[in-house]
Amino acid sequence: MAVFVSRAQWGARQPTGRSTQITPERGGVTIHHVGGSRIARASHSDCAAQVRGIQRQHMEGNGWADIAYSHLTCVHGYVFEGRGEGVRTAANGTNTANQNWYAVCGLVGGSSSAYDTVTADLVDAFHLAIARLRSQGGAARAINGHRNQLATECPGNLYRYVQDGSLEPPGGRTHTVREGETLYAIGRRYGVPWQRIAEVNGITSPYTIFAGQVLIIPDS
Question: Where in this chain does the record put each LysM domain (predicted)?
Answer without folding.
Answer: 173-217
